[in-house]
Amino acid sequence: MIQIGLTGWGDHDDLYPIGTKANQKLSIYGSHFPVVEMDSSFYAVQPTDRMARWAAETPDSFSFLVKAYQGMTGHTRGKQPYFKTTDEMYKALHASIQPLREAGKLKAVLFQYPPWFDCTRENVAVLRDTKKRMGEVPSVLEFRHQSWFTPDFRKRTLAFMHEEGWIHSVCDMY
């Protein structure tokens, strides 16, 4: 089944009556759409109490596609202002999404890699490690570098994603 949703629920003023407070927008958004890409998790791993509150504010059939923290996808270029180790970062993400998992509202975690994350052996190893760290959590992979889909690599990229259990996301940037 195809589900339509938007990136975030706070930036789409046409959905809300004039004067809608920020803390009312998610429940209104949830009456229009069945899923949302949670963009705030890209900028900071969200606290579990906030995730639990968001789960409670949405219909039972609603789900969240949680965007992985930018430090997990190389956007911070190695600088980790909030985490001392990679293990700590993944532990925080797993704790953060637990309320959504318990509520049956986690669609998946989206790993959106930056335009400089090209098709190399080193980056394939990063993806394998990431998928291993995510365990049974549904994980979506989105590339922004076209090298993954050149004629020489397209079939191998898709086979790799299938073998590793990644869900494929396509970004239309043009």
CATH fold node name: TIM Barrel
Helix content: 25-40%
Ends apart, CA distance between termini:
26 Å
User: Any idea what the radius of gyration is?
Assistant: 17 Å
Shape: globular
Mean pLDDT: 92
What's the number of structural domains? 1
How is this structure best described in words?
- The chain is an alpha/beta fold and 174 residues long.
- It has a single domain, classed as Alpha-Beta Barrel (TIM Barrel).
- The protein is 36% helix and 15% strand.
- The chain has helices at residues 25-32, 40-43, 48-56, 86-102, 121-134, 154-164, and strands spanning 5-7, 35-38, 63-67, 106-112, 139-142, 167-169.
- It has a 6-stranded parallel beta sheet with strand order 1-2-3-4-5-6.
- Helix 6 links the parallel strand 5 (139-142) and strand 6 (167-169).
- Helix 3 packs parallel to helix 4 (86-102).
- The radius of gyration is 17 Å and the shape is globular.
Explain briefly what this protein structure is.
The protein has 174 residues and is of the alpha/beta class. Helix content is 36%, strand content 15%. The chain is built from 6 helices and 6 strands; from the N terminus they run βαβααβαβαβαβ.
List keywords for this structure.
globular; 15% strand; alpha/beta; 174 residues; TIM Barrel; 6-stranded parallel sheet; 6 helices
What is this structure's SSE topology?
Layout: E1 5-7, H1 25-32, E2 35-38, H2 40-43, H3 48-56, E3 63-67, H4 86-102, E4 106-112, H5 121-134, E5 139-142, H6 154-164, E6 167-169
Parallel strand pairs: 1-2, 2-3, 3-4, 4-5, 5-6
Helix pairs in contact: 3-4
